[in-house]
């Protein structure tokens, strides 16, 4: 099933042409973290003073979030990976559907808007209204903080009860450690009256980054990165300058690409501890990893099959499951990849199989028997991380591959092909004169049973 809204943009007039059996060599600069930057932009709504965000990656998701803020009345100046945000003239507390569509992180604005203005209207996130990325944890937490919430015509309408127009601190226990819900509730609680505790909170580095920025703004948040976060509400938050942390998922993607091609590269800047689960698995599969300060050097060698189970941080990130699967297709021996966070995040499997990989998929578990080589072909990425996986597969493969569906890739990887090119990969973006229609395009991209998910 493909979302109706998605069909239109499904095959854009661009593709990446990749000459296979490439090798990577040299150093690559890692950009700021997309998932951090998105939530930090939302958090900037909490103050009337100026926020300066540095190291913001230039991505279509960030541009979309910027447009959402501008639509609220925020003055936003974007220059060379630095964004200056001035939210003092916000007049609207409602996010328009056209801008929100397809950007799940836009929903995270609800906590900041509600807490600062006492009301917020935010459309349900994502283009596909599928059940597997619910928002119940966000809603239940906001209700516990004292909000009245109504969902009407796919719009979440939140309002603070009572004359004081304040949320009230309380004890919240999340059913699952949702990244987005933890972020929404931290933002909401930072201006609430009294103490809020969030138990079973997500511990992802992006949450720690958010708390660090909020604390610079004057918030009182303790134990970010632990399972129980404590937030003492304050009356007002001020401005600050904050540098977005490096993108651990982009970093991991390059490491996996190097491992898959037995190459040697150095990535920086990174916070190596953020990548520990990934570097451990790469080491287990035969790569040599050297960590020095804020850089990681990988020397890919023989690839051994290893199993991974995705898990909330500090476990193996779901966002790197697809790239790691591409690596395992040519490993020596067998491996088992288990996706535990999202249902249907296996969109890349059938394409890897078409390229010659030997994979049996049983629900969310992929059983892989490594093959010597896979072959290049035309492919369509159907979500951000599976697109990255297909590009890695194209680099490994014998022959030429063309990867379409770049609207997904451009959401989350800054200058991906330029960086790969600098590392020695023969890759070029081709611009077709006209957009292909689905019927014209003989690329079998999705079996019927695969539901398209806008993940990441
Ligand atoms: C964020 C990241 C995404 C990453 C994911 C997991 C952003 C913009 N995106 O997404 O790249 O893959 O974390 O690391 O930061 N859930 C509920 N109820 C809720 C919310 C979530 O049951 O109210 C479930 C989801 O269905 C999923 C799991 O919790 O199974 C994790 O989702 P969550 O951590 O919320 O992911 P996002 O914040 O959407």
Give a structural overview:
By secondary structure, the chain is of the alpha+beta class. It has two domains: 7-31 and 246-453, UDP-n-acetylglucosamine1-carboxyvinyl-transferase, Chain (Alpha-beta prism); 34-243, Enolpyruvate transferase domain (UDP-n-acetylglucosamine1-carboxyvinyl-transferase, Chain), CATH 3.65.10.10. Helix content is 30%, strand content 23%. The protein has helices at 4-9, 34-43, 60-72, 97-100, 109-117, 136-144, 179-190, 205-216, 248-260, 276-284, 321-328, 349-354, 384-396, 406-412, 416-422; strands at 14-19, 25-29, 51-54, 75-79, 82-86, 119-123, 147-152, 155-160, 171-173, 195-199, 220-222, 228-232, 240-243, 264-268, 288-292, 295-299, 308-309, 334-338, 358-362, 365-369, 378-380, 400-404, 427-431. Strand 9 (171-173), helix 7 and strand 10 form a beta-alpha-beta unit. The longest helix is centred in the first third of the chain and has 13 residues, at 60-72. The radius of gyration is 22 Å and the shape is elongated. Residues 35, 38, 104-105, 132-138, 176, 178-181, 202, 206, 318-319, 341-342, 455-456 line the site of uridine-diphosphate-N-acetylglucosamine (UD1).
């Amino acid at each position: 099933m493909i979302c109706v809204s998605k069909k239109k943009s499904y095959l854009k007039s661009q593709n990446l042409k990749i000459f296979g059996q490439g090798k990577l060599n040299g150093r690559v600069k890692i950009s700021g973290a997309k998932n951090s930057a998105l939530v930090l932009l939302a958090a900037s709504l909490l103050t009337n003073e100026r926020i300066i965000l540095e190291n913001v990656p230039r991505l279509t998701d960030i541009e979309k979030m910027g447009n959402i803020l501008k639509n609220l009345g925020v003055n936003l100046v974007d220059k060379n990976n630095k964004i200056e945000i001035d939210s003092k003239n916000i007049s609207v507390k409602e996010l328009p559907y056209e801008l929100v569509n397809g950007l799940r992180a836009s929903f995270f604005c609800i906590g900041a808007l509600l807490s600062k203005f006492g009301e917020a209207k935010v459309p349900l996130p994502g283009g596909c209204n599928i059940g597997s990325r619910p928002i119940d944890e966000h809603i239940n937490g906001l209700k516990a903080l004292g909000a009245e919430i109504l969902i009407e015509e796919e719009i979440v309408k939140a309002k603070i009860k009572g004359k004081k127009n304040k949320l009230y601190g309380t004890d919240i226990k999340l059913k699952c450690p949702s990244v987005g819900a933890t972020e929404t509730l931290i933002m909401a609680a930072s201006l609430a009256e009294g103490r809020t505790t969030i138990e079973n909170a997500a511990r992802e580095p992006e949450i720690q980054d958010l708390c660090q920025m909020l604390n610079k703004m004057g918030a009182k948040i303790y134990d970010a990165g632990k399972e129980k976060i404590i937030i003492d509400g304050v009356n007002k938050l001020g401005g600050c300058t904050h540098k977005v942390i490096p993108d651990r998922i982009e970093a991991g993607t390059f490491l996996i690409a190097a491992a898959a091609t037995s190459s040697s590269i150095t990535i920086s800047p990174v916070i190596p501890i953020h990548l520990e689960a990934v570097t451990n698995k790469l080491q287990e599969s035969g790569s040599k990893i050297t960590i020095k300060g804020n850089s990681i050097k990988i020397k890919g060698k023989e690839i051994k099959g290893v199993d991974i189970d995705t898990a909330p941080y500090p476990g193996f990130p779901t966002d790197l499951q697809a790239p790691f699967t591409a690596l395992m297709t040519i490993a020596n021996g067998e491996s088992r990849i288990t996706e535990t966070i999202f249902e249907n995040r296996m969109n890349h499997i059938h394409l890897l199989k078409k390229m010659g990989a030997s994979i049996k998929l049983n629900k969310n578990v992929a059983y892989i028997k490594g093959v010597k080589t896979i072959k290049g072909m035309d492919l369509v990425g159907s979500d951000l991380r599976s697109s990255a996986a297909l590009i890695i597969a194209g680099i490994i493969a014998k022959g030429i591959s063309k990867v379409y569906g770049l609207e997904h890739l451009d959401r989350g990887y800054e200058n991906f092909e330029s960086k790969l090119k600098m590392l020695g990969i023969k890759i070029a973006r081709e611009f077709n004169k006209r957009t292909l229609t689905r019927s014209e395009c003989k690329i079998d991209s999705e079996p019927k049973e695969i539901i398209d998910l806008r993940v990441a």
